[in-house]
Amino acid sequence: MSEVKATNITWHEGHVSRDEREKLLGQKGCLIWFTGLSGSGKSTIAFTVEHELVREGRLAYVLDGDNIRHGLNKNLGFSAEDRAENIRRIGEVGKLFVDLGAITMTAFISPYLADRDAARALLDDGQFIEVFVDVPLESCEERDPKGLYKKARAGEIKGFTGIDDPYEAPKNPELVIKNGECTPQQAAAQVIDYLKSRGLVRS
Amino acid sequence: MSEVKATNITWHEGHVSRDEREKLLGQKGCLIWFTGLSGSGKSTIAFTVEHELVREGRLAYVLDGDNIRHGLNKNLGFSAEDRAENIRRIGEVGKLFVDLGAITMTAFISPYLADRDAARALLDDGQFIEVFVDVPLESCEERDPKGLYKKARAGEIKGFTGIDDPYEAPKNPELVIKNGECTPQQAAAQVIDYLKSRGLVRS
User: Fold this and answer.
1) N or C, which end of chain A has less CB nearby within 10 Å?
2) What is the pTM for the complete model shown?
3) What pLDDT score was predicted for residue B16?
4) For residue A94, which of A82, A104, A107 has the smallest C-alpha distance?
5) What does the alpha-carbon distance between residue A75 and residue B62 come to, in Å, rounded to a whole number?
6) What is the rounded distance in angstroms from the CA atom of residue B29 to the CA atom of residue B47?
7) ipTM of the assembly?
8) Is residue A147 part of a domain?
């Protein structure tokens, strides 16, 4: 599905630059890409970061399964091809949000290196921040907040990451969060400190 | 392609409401959907509105062929199915932008009533503003800024709106702009006046 068909169209910047919107917002658009096993706490951390940033007057937004799988990607299933297309579309929407100037977060397992690298390649240097939420499979399975591991072990869900489908850990993520060893607030603080250290939001 | 496959997922609001982001931005998110023939001036008007709003300190963004067809929808062609999917995805992305709180504009021919109505149905009452850029075919063809009508008449482009594919004019658009009879600045002022009259941006 990612074959290029629309080739007779040229790109232009539009009349307002990202720079002007970023000045207006007092921040720099970026795409914080959380990746990790189901149950590792990606969404919880992302929403905690969003909450804290908005409290500080920054514009932040989380793309996750709830607002993406119900809408833009509701016509995609869980085949290998559809999973790749799922992540591709999320990367492209993330790019648009970054162009708007938003601190954008994605919270998807996104288990494959190649798919995440393709998303990274859409953004400029420094705009893509890969955050590996590193929690051992055993801990995720023990938590099992949605009962999905149980179903996967029972064979009711096929191709479940960590059980019968691989998770490819990031090789050089911008951040690693050992979420088994800290609270969501501590994890969120780690992300926000990173954003401030890079000048993406004001200290 | 718009069959619903991902049904085992539930929607939740996230931790920050649209309302909080709108308060932060001092505006209300909305989707201004420009529709009209090729060459009617949709993009020019949209970018003029964007420019003026950003000058007033508002966050506005235009989704158009350039940033969508090169990215999110680059794997779609021009078959009937792909055209519908093109507009469907644009509507869904527009909805996400509205949820972020942005004054969002789309500038696509979007010739079919059903596709535009499907986009309208994604948004809440008052969030979807259909703007019919009403310019006679003869004027658009005379302008022909990209030389597309010439190619369509020569049979080099098939299924071109207004030539060998229908344009279904909106029945009850929020705004009609007679763009043959005004400047882009006047057209943009019409749109911004509407936004202010509805309290979507401050007067």
Assistant:
1) C
2) 0.91
3) 86
4) A104
5) 25
6) 17
7) 0.90
8) no
- What is the rounded distance in angstroms from the CA atom of residue B6 to the CA atom of residue A69? 6
Residues in chain B: 203
Chain A: residue whose CA lies nearest to B101 = A59
Q: What is the pLDDT of residue B66?
A: 86
Instruction: Examine residue B12 and state whether it is found in any structural domain, yes or no.
Output: no
Q: What pLDDT sits at residue B12?
A: 36
> Would residue B6 count as lying in a domain?
no
How many domains would you assign to chain A? Answer: 1
Parent domain of B85: 18-197
Q: Tell me whether residue A88 is in a domain.
A: yes
Interface probe for B, chosen from A81, A89, A98 (most Cβ of B below 10 Å), is A89
- Residue B91 sits in a domain of what CATH number? 3.40.50.300
Residue A196 CA to residue A203 CA, distance in Å, equals 5
Closest alpha carbon within chain A to B14: A47
Convert the pLDDT of each residue in B117-162 to its tens digit.
999 999 999 999 999 999 999 999 999 999 999 999 999 999 999 9
B197 is catalytic: no
Chain B CB contacts of A11 below 8 Å? 66-67, 70
